Amino acid sequence: MNKHPSPLWTHLTSENRMTGTWRSALPNYQNQPSPCLGACPVHGHIAEWIKQVKDGDVYGAWVTLTENNPFPAIAGRICHHPCESACNRQHMDETVGICSLERFVGDTALAEGWQFSAPPTQETSVAVIGGGPAGLSAAYQLRRRGFRVALYETKDELGGLMRFGIPAYRLARSVLDGEINRITAMGVDLHLGVPAVDGAALETLQNSHDAVFLATGASLPKRLPALDYANPWVVDSADFLAAPVSEQTDRTGARVIVIGGGSAAMDVARSARRLGRSVTVLALEPEGRLPAQRIEVEEAVEEGVNFVHGAMMKSAEALGSGVVLNCVRVDFEPGDAPGAFSVEPLDGSDFELMADTIIPAIGQDADLARWSGVLDAKGPVVATGRDWQTSKPGLYAGGDVASMNRFVTQAVGMGKEAATAIAAALTPGDARPPANGAAQVAYDRINIAYHDTHGRNRQRNTEIEARLATFDEVQQPLGPNEARSEAARCFSCGTCIYCDNCYFYCPDMAITKLENGYVVNSDYCKGCGLCVAECPTGSIHMREDTSS
Amino acid sequence: MNAPLFTEDLKLLNGNHAVAWGVCLAEPDVAPVYPITPQTPILEKLIDFESRGACQIELLTPESEHSAMAAAIAASATGARVFTATSSQGLLLMHELLHYASGARTPIVLFNVNRTPAAPWGFWPDQIDSLSQRDTGWVQLYSESPQESLDSVIQAFRIAEAVNLPVMVNHDAFYVSHSVEPVSIPDAGMVRDFLPRIPREIQLGDGTGRSLGAPIDQAAWNLTRREMDAAMKRVENVSEQAGSEWERLTGRPSAPLEFYRCEDAEIVYVTMGSMSGTVREVVDLLRESGVPAGLLKVRLFRPLPVQALRHALAGTSCAIVLDRNYSPGTGGVLHQELKAGLFGMENPPRVHGMLAGVGGVNVPVGSIAKLAADCRNAEQTAEPVWVE
């Protein structure tokens, strides 16, 4: 035998093999945007806060959520949730119930009395005109950054459309008040019941503040030319929804016809059903194509609302104690933008409907006339450029007054973006953080072997009879266990959950765990991609490594 | 503990059950085995023994032969005595790890039942499955009978543990594996003395914190093969000694090469496995008719005992190799090996390569006897001849 020790048994480890030299690609940890984040009007870090819910850290989830949206309890009830439409989980079984989880977090925060903290108020001051979702969102974001905020609202209460347009059975007033009071508690200089701000008042406010954010909403009802609004049997939908129940009762007869197919029309129709009225919705759109959310239409049907689709009213006239509506079927062609459509009456399809009250709910316009010659308009809204700045420097605008994307959370998102832009403009040297330009994580990046098939935990609705008896909330919340279970369904697309799969599967032990993540040791990573394949969340991807 | 099973000296056993008896007596610590026809009775009998408390083997049943061999290597590296068994496709599935086992110097004993590999599918006795593994660094033994299989598997542990190389023992499907013969069961205490536990110099888990088979440079890898070469060179002596001692203990000769009536033989048949029994009858018949024939049975095929072969065949004019295997493109594997082994010999015998019994076809006495007449004065050819 030879005199050398056998090289079979050594004190070597694989550390002496620099397998990194074999590599042509290197894994890259990148918190890529999830599809829900991309779709979210407030750009909320949904995957992140859902993971916190899953981990039982509801407070942490609330903190994460409220970075972008101070209204989780409100949004969790009424958001049109485009996040769920984008959710990757739909390709496996059903989308994650993001909205119901948001409500769970928001309700928990209200129940626990969690409050926002605000830094000391600076001298720099911003005026916010309008106390609806866009204005309140901007005020919140500005106060978080320490700016002095003066808020001007024509009504005596804050909330805008959330208070005066959305019925309590969809959004309990205690929830609305709770989330608004939490913002004003940050120290907002409130001016309620002030006159509408005209061009001259704008000028004054600009002179007394470092910036102004205009968020007066869309307060003018669109009018049907064929209807004489002076008739006692015509009630404007915005007035109806803003009125107390007693007044709603006084102003409606037994048979109500609601004209329109959007959310406001559903709110009117379902409110009228709660007054005991017989309700018919007359909509231009064919069945299944109404602009209202599908769930709103379904719940309206459950509550006994009748629908006449694909038709329009040509005229209405009093007949005896009631009204007769002369209607015709139409061919409906949707347009490219919201509100842009065309209709073609179909010859010989005339019919009549009988009613006691007609409530048109065909949309609202922004009142731009008061700023005529002061602010540029772009079509029906105030013209804004990048960062929501209007034609007047230092004057920003957002929400329904500046956009046709007329959803509450869109307004919240615009308020946030405008506030961020204002803060950047008023803070020398403070650039806006660059947007995460990475591609969204597609479904095929998720390793579904790590996710069990599990149907969605659904919120329950109150029984139909009970619903019609009151204006109490219809939708019941998820319980804590259901919320945890629903949160566990989230794929956490593009958001590392620190599962250690990459660490364990790496055949070269090239991955080191850090306190808050992982790092790849390029001396050993040979670029096999196992870590990427075994990542349950698509948080790692391979990129070509051209380094020598 | 196992005394009640060994009260009878002679038992009627088929080849596979004889192997299981031998394994049981050798007392391995671990046996990862995956079933396959025609090996399965070995596994079944071992399970039977184990379940009755006749032996204390950690029997593992992994999901494939590849995993069985992986488990065998790891177990052996910890210093455990390890047995496994397989056949044909199973052995071929183990191929990658056969190299690993020898490279890691794990003294595993594997029993292989020689069976035709697919395609086409078959279950017939043919030795190409194990012969095609001849370059994997395993010692190879071939057995003719149930008794020899029992004896060989015990000797295999002795050889393996003396040189730290794995040993594969083979017998032919059905002709041996399923044929019942009287088998003498050795005394358990005697076997224990024959197979003393040799402490390994280094083993996994011995607290020295060493790596087995970590990546090394070219020169160091080269050195491992030189070490294996030195170990292989010791195998002939070690098996010779093991065979002598076994003969002293049991009265059964167990040398690497077995000779039958080879003294002054002009014609010597060379073969392995079950064919040997038929050839023994042929030799007797030829001798009766005045033809000086003999049989050289190769038990130790790898490493082939070259010097002993050359010595045995000196003075013989005609060697007829009977190969129950076929290596496409060359012919019989034993034929090749013998030609190579005799290379450079002064006055070597003519070597006639006969493909006899490939695929398990019957090779009757008459066919083999006729070869003596055909080859006695014929020129040897490089090409193999298919025996009808």
From TrEMBL, chain B:
One MF term in the entry's GO annotations: oxidoreductase activity
Gene3D superfamilies the record matches: 3.40.50.920, 3.40.50.970
Keywords tagged on the record: Oxidoreductase
InterPro entries, per the entry: PFOR_II, Pyruvate:ferred/Flavod_OxRd, Pyrv_Fd/Flavodoxin_OxRdtase_N, THDP-binding, Transketo_C/PFOR_II
Record GO biological process: response to oxidative stress
Transmembrane segments: none
Pyruvate flavodoxin/ferredoxin oxidoreductase pyrimidine binding domain boundaries: 23-240
Pyruvate:ferredoxin oxidoreductase core domain boundaries: 265-364
UniProt name for this protein: Pyruvate ferredoxin oxidoreductase
Record organism: Ruegeria marisrubri
